[in-house]
Fold these 2 entries.
Entry 1:
Amino acid sequence: MCGLSGEVRFDGRLPDLAAVERMTDRLAPRGPDGRGLWSQGCVALGHRRLKIIDLSESGAQPMADPRARLAGVFNGCVYNYRELRRELTNLGHRFFSHSDTEVVLAAYREWGTACVERFHGMFAFVIAEQDTGRVVLARDRLGIKPLYLAETPGRLRFASSLPALLAAGGVDTSIDPVALHHYLSWHATVPAPRTVLNGVRKLPPATVRVVEPDGTHHDHRYWQPEYTRRPEHAGLSAEDWTDAVLDALRTAVRRRMVADVPVGVLLSGGLDSSLIVALLADEGQSDLATFSVGFESEGGEEGDEFHYSDLVARHFGTEHHQLLVPSDRVSRALDGAVEAMSEPMISHDVVAFHLLSEQVAKEVKVVQSGQGADEVFAGYHWYPDMARVPRAQAAGAYAETYFDRPHADLAHMLEPDVLPAHDVSGDFVRAHMAVPGAQTALDADLRLDTHVMMIDDPVKRVDNMTMDWGLEARVPFLDHQLVELAAACPPELKLADGGKGVLKAAGRKVLPREVVDRPKGYFPVPAIKHMAGPVLQRVREALSAPEARARGIFRRTYVDELLAAPDAHRTKRGANALWQVALLEIWLQTHEIT
């Protein structure tokens, strides 16, 4: 797990090495264990290393293969790198390290861009062909690892975070109105390739981009489950599906133990993270470190679920660590979490993840997390309603159920020059729902949530918050083979038992029933949800700052309405509208965007 950066020139000039160094230095939290730079001709690469696999200097990056005339930088982990290494050795390749990075280079040398189809893991990489000048960028199937791009005439820059690109300079930081529309409509989800800034884009997940020496490029999307029932699954009983899911999850958890350092678990006490602990115990994992976080109550809402995490920790004999965060520390930690955000994120648990990661990183370098199970196995409360909708009406039902507000409401909120003339977020959903495949409305909904919303909300959140402390988070529920299996699973089995039915059935085979049959919980941070005093003060400061007034995104009358009644204005989904507006402004100010 690392941070990568670089620059490619198409105008005959040499890369700006000082800019690449600034990007690399900004990525230091993602890779505190090593730093490297490489440059030849029109390409320069930078890297920050977090030592997880091959702890020696042989695994340092950027890494070059002088025989193949390749150089590359890599972020993530290819869990099956040992198997691929053996296969490549049998094909005549020779290795000087024990790293998965070298396997990626050798796999590209052997199979070209099709190498990504052989990788089980999370990754973003850039490979430069020294002889041709061609540069290849790739991202894993579920977009777990980020890759941001800034293209200007004659130049392409890339980095593992948006703030790193800002550190290089020369970025158009004006607001993208379409992305802003997505942010305000879709609970802060801004789908790839856009970001809220006009000058920054991100490589979509499951995509390989080949950039030619003249700057032209073509993209290839190499993976997308169909979300239809497969012939090979015909006749499977509910019990068969339960066993198949449990076996696939067991494999996913086992894969994510590959490391040359200890691997812990972020344990909320919910079904998903508890399943990971149970399966690791089944695998014979001893001295397993688990970590939980909770917050002080506010507004009559409890802020921790320690009862359940303690129960699981005791049952499986883990080395459990519990962090209780007082409300006043939430407000103090807010700015650090915002600084770690590559894009604005409004979910309350972003601060929780940041605070928890700070503590966990003192104990381990790698953790497994239960992120993604709700999207993959239909765990949210709105999915049953979607299942009753005809397939042809899926797009409208999705927008009505999930969007924070309709397009018409934005005219009251936004200044005219950042307000798109039509419902661009609705257009995006309609286009996605119209793609062939996805038999039912629920299938189409899960496809959208898993391959768009999840990637640019919860998955990005976990990556940004953990990596800001040099902590690698692995997400077994996003193992691509498990996702393929879940996509083919009959919707009624996923919806059973109040949601995630097939996963709950699997849980009952390995977990205490009290954990499986508990009410669904979330990651509560009451101090933010209910605008506790210090949080509200920070919000007022940001929205009253000269930068906010000069920026002119939100109508001043609307901001004043929100500030006059901080806890009264809610989106359709119940989120605090003031928090959504303020977080964007706090993010822009934190990253010195004018």
Entry 2:
Amino acid sequence: MNPLLDIERLSVEFDTGRGRLQAVSDVSFSMKAGEIVCLVGESGSGKTVTSKAIMRLIDDENGSIAAGAIKLDGVDVAGLSRHALRSLRGKKMAMVFQEPMAAFDPVFTIGSQIVETIRRHNRKETSSQAWHRAVELLRRVGIPEPELRMKQYPNELSGGMLQRAMIAMALSCEPELLIADEPTTALDVTIQAQILQLLQDLKTEYNMSILLITHDLGIAAEIADRIIVMYAGQVVEKASKSELFEQPHHPYTQGLLRSITTMDSDRAKRLYAIPGSIPSLADLPGGCRFHPRCPYASEQCVREAPALQDRGGRQSACWNVEQLIGGDSDIPAAPTAPHAEIASASLQPAAEQAKPHTDSLFELVHVTKHYPYGRSVFSKEKKAIRAVDDVSFSIRKGETFGLVGESGSGKSTLGRVLLHLEKPTSGTILLEGRDLALLSGARLREERKHMQMIFQDPYGSVDPRWKVGDIIGEPFSVHGALNAREKREAVGELLQLVGLNPAAYDRYPHEFSGGQRQRIGIARAIALRPKFVLADEPVSALDVSVQAQIVNLLQDLRQQLDLTLMFIGHGLNIVRYVSDRIGVMYLGKLVEIAPSEQLFRHPAHHYTKALVSSIPVPDPRRQRTFAAIEGEIPSPASPPSGCRFRTRCPAATARCAIEQPLFKEVGHGHYAACHDPVI
């Protein structure tokens, strides 16, 4: 059978201020009809550039195909005119982007944009016919009340709904090839499971080929037929899903697989992390591009670049495949990244590891945070978004308290209220017995030294015009702790403590990778030796290998600086690994709290059970159907009566609709708010 997509020795270049930059080099692979192929690798490996080259979207980004061919059903896309290309897009191939909000035009309704796509490729279809077809497409991808959604604007839809609408628009002309670029990265694990199940169903229904770009190998294990691994603009391995997971033939693939945090990851051991980071395309190493980070690197790897070689139907580009698959299960010691060790005597506590504490650092008592809206002089009714509703729990000194739940559950709002960045509507927050609401402005500012935050977006949380030294040293300036010379010395120690070179002091944030920027944010957060650090989704935007590096760093700092942490996340395996106890939130309510292992192994609340069941399993031998929760989280402005999860709960009864469940102990140290707990 002839392949639907056949890419032969593709090279892509971009015009930059420093001249021509080659982003993709000598990439070759093919896809059959009805096949799902996953393109995996760290950010900067060339995955998205390759996908955009197939669609010829690089033409609008100062990019060009420098060499090679892209044949779609025998037609060379690389040689088509813009007019011919327009007729091919949508009809033969379509793309689902990582950020659907950026793909939709915010000034037009969802319906009008889908209808426009349908009519552009089928002029014979009337506006009314296209409208009805668009409604059916939205219904097919699982969007409730499609007639209503057609009239709404992109900002009125949730992230999951918007991604479904993007898929509906991509399917509007029934393409043979669907390219999905990180379609689930920004989504909760429950919505991610729904989208992946939808893609599998659509592939079967339309006999459609899907090229899925992801850095999550758990997703690849669940959905792919074959996997292609890219590194620094080149393909380094191609294999079937079962072959790749059973025995990788490239050290980079092996490193990615070992970096995955799973339900089976030993919480007593450090996570494996590939040292260093992916090189800049403007400064690529000679020989094998992976050799500076490779534990198997030899002199030949430094001198000479390996070509893709066929080994029993699979391919890899490595000089040392025989050594890699030679029987030793342990990976050789990897080269150490410069300044990656934790070493700063002046910042370490007296004891090497603080003894666990049993008393509470924070106490939250009936805390609520409501946001009033829609008030009118003509209406006495008070409406409010109930972001946090009657939450009570404690955070013990020296522990890491994890907080999980879908977007809209109130996790981040609770974090901001905890730090008093926003005042609670009601309730009490005690820090070591002191009510933060009763403190004066000056006293509260003094207490802020002990409460710091690590943000999800390490670039958006800093001023890009400031040098790294000024960013990390800002807490010293605000609290007047040090003079200029002392500040520079302290910042240098902090940089070394988080695994960065002190020479980074005079550089700017844009000169660093995402993982390095997050290390800068961590250095700023620990500058004043706080007692408590709130980490709000600190690794969700990072690649799996970088996630492992940052998690290991946080674990080291927690022990060395005697920190108490609150770790908010939707990557449930990561939260399980770092946390001593975990709280689960749903629609502003705390529905379960338990020790980490107990919560994941024996969840008591049906929502927690559904969250755990939605986690992708990075092992093709343990394949299962996606246990996706039906529907989306309701609006916090109008929550359901009784148990707020009842509208999506498979075990809901009539009692759940009229009576709110009490938060009660269901096991030793295990609490849940459910009329009929799982255990």
